[in-house]
Structure prediction request, 211 residues.
Amino acid sequence: MKWTRATVTALTAASIATAVGACSGGNGSEKPTRSTASAPSTTSPAPSVSAVTTASPSTAYDPNSPQERAKEMARAYFEVSDACLQEPSKAKATCFDSVATTSALNDLRSALSSAQAAQTKQIGFLQVVSTTLLKTDLTNKPKESPPTVPNLTFGVCYDVSKVNVVDYSGKSIVPPDRKPRAIENVIVVNYKYPDPTQWRVGYVVPTGKSC
Prediction:
């Protein structure tokens, strides 16, 4: 079985898949929030992220810059998804709305539904080791078809050595060959740019690499 993380989807969904014999590559009653802004509609068409350009180095730290705002959201994405999957039976489908949209949001909701159906839950929290800005493109043409919206790609190294997933009886269902660390490319988008509160993770792409 291939270990990936596409959020805790990797940890929860992949572990659930193991439990049912499939092979595939806080308080849950409250909605964890990182931003009070409302999330973009889940029906928003996928943005074009093919024309991404290499990020230019910044000479001064600006907490309100697109790079810093998007980086904060990339890290918050993992924190919120962890919190929502601690008690799946109490979590709502809207639990992830403050940090994800489009493909990433659908993946998280699927992971939650799988965990609820299989009566599994996550114990412990993933640790983000590093978040590196790889590419950036602030082109904003939302009326095009498909739309082109500002997007930044981060290479996120995370550690799951202190994370476990257990079934209804408390037995671990984590694959024994799971690697403690991995890298995923996290693409953060903004459908309402330049509003700095509207950055959301749109896509998570496993690299198959460790860190």
Summary: Residues 8-31+49-209 form a domain with the Nuclear Transport Factor 2; Chain: A, fold (CATH 3.10.450).
